[in-house]
Specification:
3 helices, about 70% helix
Length: about 90
Amino acid sequence: MNHIVALQNLVTPWSDGLEPSDAELDAIDFEMPLILAEVDLLDAEITVLDRAPSQLDERRIRRARRKALSVRRMLTNQAAAASMPGGAA
């Protein structure tokens, strides 16, 4: 009987390049506010999946949507400003 563990090195060879680079970590760090805002929105939407949303639930979802849009706009503006010569947007 052949064990799949014996074939593991052939299927997935270990590489030193599996860790994220500093640039990738910086990109994740840059997008972290958006990630957190979208997690809050997802949490608010999951809360009302199995019941009718109350007024408080609707406010929570609207607030989370506004926050996610605001953070997305902020990140887009920062990326656009960084790509403009001289920093002018």
